[in-house]
Design brief:
Length: 195
């Protein structure tokens, strides 16, 4: 389980708790801390220490995270190759299922990596700025257009700065309290030069 990273040093009794959880993951919903201690032949204190060791506030927090990870793994198909989800010799049904699994896996992985505090900070920056200029080239430009389309419905109107080749003109006119967003894909080296 990802909740119990391998780089943490666990005591033998903590390992017993982890072993029990991993082998009885579907029974965790109705388990109390006392039940878990009894079933894993440990103590409530061991479970609380283990909870704190994996950055949980206590057993209830640990239990919620275990259930969340179990549910995430339920929908995650680990057999999908993100680079080549299907091959030219696959039949249409296999391609359909591979594409569906690719999108489901992508959404699950993305959801788990979202830091809501960073989203809140970005939203506050957008709301506090006079104007929002967004830059994106190629596929990132499509993402920028999609984002603009979604926030327009919230009565927020960012400007797609390089949509009509106007980026040089717009960049020179950015003022204090304007926000510029450069969308760059990780797999590409896209550099926008600002003068």
């Amino acid at each position: 389980m990802q909740l119990f990273p391998k780089n943490i040093k666990y005591t033998n009794t903590e390992k017993d708790v982890i072993h029990y959880i991993e082998h009885h993951i579907n029974d965790i919903d109705n388990l109390t801390i006392t039940d878990l201690a009894k079933e894993s032949h440990t103590s409530n204190a061991t479970i609380i220490r283990l909870s704190h060791k994996v950055n949980c506030n206590g057993f209830k927090d640990l239990k919620v995270k275990i259930i969340k990870e179990r549910e995430n793994n339920h929908y995650l198909n680990n057999n999908v190759d993100f680079s080549f989800p299907f091959s030219p010799i696959d039949d249409p049904a296999t391609i359909k299922n591979s594409i569906a699994n690719l999108y489901l896996n992508s959404m699950t992985v993305l959801r788990d990596q979202i830091d809501t505090s960073k989203i809140m900070k970005a939203a506050e920056m957008i709301m506090d700025s006079n104007r929002v200029f967004m830059f994106g080239v190629g596929d990132t430009g499509i993402t920028v257009k999609s984002f603009i389309n979604k926030v327009n419905k919230l009565n927020i109107f960012p400007i797609f700065a390089n949509e009509n080749g106007e980026e040089d003109h717009i960049v020179r006119r950015v003022r204090p309290n304007d926000l510029t967003v450069l969308l760059v894909m990780r797999t590409m080296n896209v550099n926008l030069a600002m003068k």
